[in-house]
Amino acid sequence: MKRRTFIVIIAGVLASVVGGYLVLHQEKQEAPKIAVQAERPIPVSIVAVAAATVSDTLNLVGEIQAIREADIVAEVEGQVRRIAVEPGERKEKGALLVALDDEVAAARKKKAELHYRQAARTAERYSALYRDGAVSLSAYEAMELQREEAQAELVSATKHMQNAAIRAPFGGVVTSRLVSEGELVRVGTKVAHMADFSRTKVVLYAPERTLPLFVLGKSVLVSSNLFPDKRFSGKVSAISDRAERAHNYRIEVLLNNESRSIPFRSGMFARVLVPSEGERQALVVPRRALVNGMRNPAIFVVRNGRAWFTPIIAGMEMPREFEVLGGLVAGDSVIVSGQQELRDKARVEVVHR
């Protein structure tokens, strides 16, 4: 019995040893396969970095705005008695837009006029008495003070009555009317909106690296997809000294439209073309080679069968290419297809050049 038990134990030990050996042997055979699969090259397409002739002409999109725009608001409270304007009408400076009920304002002005007349007569009488020594200086000064207070009340009442007639603050087009006849408006209520299109401007935001191309007074061309056959001349009228969050600077381009020949309207998109001073040679790379976009530009460069993640310094942007100012040299092979699956130093196989 003891001998049989001993034999069974020995057999179990041998079986464990053989099983462990087989498992280790199998793992050693599979490990190279896994390594081979992990190192399988990724197919990519490349192009060689080369110098090309470029022009510094800049093409940016901006928004058309009137030279002046304003919300017209009521400065006094009252009921709308008359509407003297409709959207789309042009009004000269000082033209009536909306008339409010002015009966109370007129009564207040009349009362202020009477008070001022009385105060003025009293002040004149005290002035004569003071010259004759009949009244003291303090009494005379008190009457003069009352006259000045009455005059201030008259000025306030007159202004209040004038404000009942809401007029155009400048010459322009009424773009919207926001009240109706019979409506009660309060101080600060918007009654209309006006825009002055005698001159229009294009507001655009230029990247930091393009700022040297913008100079105050520089002539530029303006176009629109709505009018593809027309070009309009403009001048750079304002350059912001402070960048926006994305390191873009606000630029304003002024267009003279006194003859009403420019068909732009506020809110339209326009394209601004900033001409260059000539042509030059520069390294260019296709835009599809970018990995992180233009804010933090980087690309993959193929060297010795591997993809190397390479940050670069980007220059001028073009429709399909962009200028490289640093990080690459002529002849470098950059990946333009297949980089979505790449990591730094990954093995690659070039399938198209």
UniProtKB/TrEMBL annotation:
Residues 140-167 form a coiled coil. The keyword Coiled coil applies. It holds the Pfam family BSH_CzcB. One of its GO terms (molecular function) is efflux transmembrane transporter activity. Keywords: Coiled coil. Residues 69-196 form the CzcB-like barrel-sandwich hybrid domain. The keyword Coiled coil applies. Belongs to the membrane fusion protein (MFP) (TC 8.A.1) family. This is Secretion protein HlyD. GO terms for cellular component: efflux pump complex. It comes from Chlorobium chlorochromatii (strain CaD3). PANTHER family: HLYD FAMILY OF SECRETION PROTEINS (PTHR30469:SF15), MULTIDRUG RESISTANCE PROTEIN MDTA (PTHR30469). SUPFAM superfamilies: HlyD-like secretion proteins.
